[in-house]
Amino acid sequence: MNTAKDISQLYNSLFELEAKFKKEAVYPIHKQLHFPEHFTDIYEFLISKVDCNGKTILDAGCGVGFGSFLFAKNQAKQVTGISVSKKEIERANAMKTKLKMENCQFQLASFDEISTPFDLIFCVESLKHSLDIQKSFATLLNALTINGQLIIVDDFFDGHENTFSQQLKENWHLNSLISEKDIQIDGANFRISSEDLTPLMRLKSPLKIHIQMLFFRFFKKNSRYKKLFKGGILLDYLYTKKQMKYKLMIITKIQ
């Protein structure tokens, strides 16, 4: 079983890798989404779905704070970003100072350390990295105010365990793959809506995936980035095989 240290090291390495190849202003997410409207990233799309004005917001798995700053600019009352990566939190705090975003704060913390109630909780491609997805999901639900909303966007596994899904878990230190069965709610207390965003993805061709897999032969055996790259390609492969769905789920606490 993976540990909190494994996940922290994974995100630290991911931060270092993205810092090498991506501009500071670009949201660090490997997926390319083709929106039918003017949205340029997943967070702008999500803000069109919910009202941030005057809300207290938790960005659970905030990365370097890209989404948190966008929430703050959309009139959020207070935004708290959490990550298990010390390097991500350091960058987020540096950007907060640079942008003078007084209604943002960033903390080194995991999902299971949440106690303060929030009006909105965003989990964008972060819940799958929880050591215990069902436990973290329950914690997030409990942290909602009445009429509060939990917004999850993630890779939902929609197939049977196979060699590729096992390798994905190994390379990305996942104890399990998130599936819809992990999102269990009491219908009397919560309302849930779901949207399949997979059609917005620009899927790689099987040939491109094959070429990228061959590329790994040139990596040093113990390269800390090798697993990150390989995990991303394995995820792409599962999408091409229609064993993954990129889903948006909004859970509203009604009492």
Automatic annotation (TrEMBL):
Transmembrane region(s): none
Keywords annotated in UniProt: Methyltransferase, S-adenosyl-L-methionine, Transferase
Gene Ontology molecular function: methyltransferase activity
Domain Methyltransferase: 54-176
Protein name: Class I SAM-dependent methyltransferase
Matching InterPro entries: Methyltranfer_dom, SAM-dependent_MTases_sf
One Pfam short name: Methyltransf_31
SUPFAM superfamilies: S-adenosyl-L-methionine-dependent methyltransferases
GO BP terms, alphabetized: methylation
